[in-house]
Amino acid sequence: MSLKMSGHFTYKRLLRFVISPILMIICTAVYGVVDGFFISNYVGKVPFAAVNLVMPVDLVPVAIGFMIGEGGNALISKKLGENKRGIANQYFSLLIYTTAVIGVVLSLAGYAFTPVIADILGANDQLKPYCVEYGRILFAAQFFYVLQNIFQSFFIAAGKPDLSLKVSLLSGGINVLLDVLFIVVLQWGVAGAAWATALGQVAGGMAPLAYFARKNSSLLQITRTRLNLPVLFKTFTNGSSDMVSVLSASVITALYNYQLLSIAGEDGVAAYGAIMYITFIFMSIYLGYASGSAPLISFQYGAKNHEELHNLVRKSIVLMLGLGGIITVVAELAAEPLLGAFVGYDQELFSLTVHGYCMYVLAFLLMGLNIWGAALFTALNNGLVSAAISFLRTFGFEMAAVLLLPIWLGIDGIWISIFVAELCTCFITVYFMVSKREVYHY
């Protein structure tokens, strides 16, 4: 199925266009949940805590993939909107080659320095062996994982959002099946979980590479190209907000783990891990919508169709605010059954997790608007404003809240930090959206 980016978008057509990116990211989140379920229930809460401790590092290839994918998407979609398909393919190919080189460097460096990384993340003697065992296997697959992340963005610009979902189903399906085989049947423990994830990532990176490397029915194909530093610079700066969002999530996760380890010990880290697995499923709706709608905005901006650009922005704001209320209510009501699947075997840990989760998910009320607001300015090729929103949201407000609020509120200060950060960011997002309205004619 190929969906055109031109023409008028009703709510129905807009949701039809973004549904594949949303489902793709939800599938990715669900597969992560399955990983966590098997590790927690079949390996134990200490290995589960160890995996969650090292998980921030696994976000690095995601950050790079988002930076190049979303930043490049804006450039490529704009060129497609200008009817310059040949140039769009040259940009696309350059970014694929660049990503491949970065992936090799990540794999080699990560594998070599895994023990050092575990120490930096605060792993104690009990957690470190599991961190190193899990981390080294994952790092070996980083080349494929960073490719998987960038291709998921480019499938949308190529007019094939459904293929991003199919690749996700392939990668995640392999992951889940191998989880059962390696963890439950063969009892390989943490190593089994890591191998299942790594092999799923190999499939997720190689399948789209094979598709775009040959003639296909999409708008994009890997071709011969040349080094173009201005294009790389524009891609990196334009996608910097996406990289900041993911990298900051990595840093913030490490900070949460550090604070919780000092206040509640390994149970605190395990509780946060369970919360993150579940909340990422809900957050995926916002991320998928932002990723799916951004090429539409870039296309209309490149085509100078101000009326349709205004239509897309208005509808997106309504959807983000409406979904914020719905997702928050659903997340609160589903707390106990969802978290029970992870930590129901330990009543004290379960109570701690549910308590923290119910405060944490209040952030969903405003999170969608903030995520989409940053994506809007990336799509409009204004990486500076987009990066400012993302930087303040995480490195600014959330980091400050995680460090300061526990001084007065104890562990509750940690759980409520993300809501405080989203509330503060909302004012910044609205300010930029209003002040830039006349500049971009939306």
UniProtKB/TrEMBL annotation:
Topological type in the membrane: Multi-pass membrane protein
TM annotation in the entry: 14-34, 46-69, 90-114, 134-157, 169-188, 194-214, 235-258, 270-291, 312-334, 354-377, 384-408, 414-434
InterPro entries per the UniProt record, alphabetical: MATE_fam, MATE_MepA-like, MATE_MepA_subfamily, MdtK-like
UniProt keywords, alphabetically: Antibiotic resistance, Cell membrane, Membrane, Transmembrane, Transmembrane helix, Transport
UniProt subcellular location: Cell membrane
GO MF term (any one): xenobiotic transmembrane transporter activity
GO CC aspect terms: plasma membrane
GO BP term (any one): response to antibiotic
UniProt keyword Metal-binding, yes or no: no
Record family assignment: Belongs to the multi antimicrobial extrusion (MATE) (TC 2.A.66.1) family. MepA subfamily.
UniProt protein name: Multidrug export protein MepA
